[in-house]
Fold this sequence. Notes:
Layout: H1 2-24, E1 27-32, H2 42-49, E2 63-67, H3 72-82, H4 86-99, E3 106-108, H5 111-120, E4 124-129, E5 137-142
Parallel strand pairs: 2-3, 2-4
Antiparallel strand pairs: 1-4, 1-5
Amino acid sequence: MQLWTLTRIILCFLLLITCTAKANDSLVVIVHRDNPNQRLSQYQLIDLYMGKYAAFPDGTLATVLDYEQGHPLRIEFLTTLTGRPMSQINAYWSQVKFSGKASFPQAYQSIEAILKEVASTPDAIGYVPETALTEDVKVVYRFVQ
Length: 145
């Protein structure tokens, strides 16, 4: 009986650690710390990241930063943000690119590159895991877990 109790305690502990680690790895949308925009809605982010709008709500042009095609953070971000599978998102971008109505966001390879670019570009917007945040950027959107 004691073995069963010990096993249950260990399993609960492991579950707690897993949930805590996942919560700390939530993606957050960031802008330059001096950007006047304090918060953005999910719909505003969809408009920016899907090429519908090229400016922040205050009218300032936005430099949208993204990860390269196939990057795990890009897949997580876009599917969570839009609620659509990557196949639909890629099909949408193929149509937009063909029509010439919008251009792809600037693509980067790493979290560090996104952080560096957002920190040095006042009109940049990007996303990183919450655990990677620095004082040089400001969070304008958090995904609700």
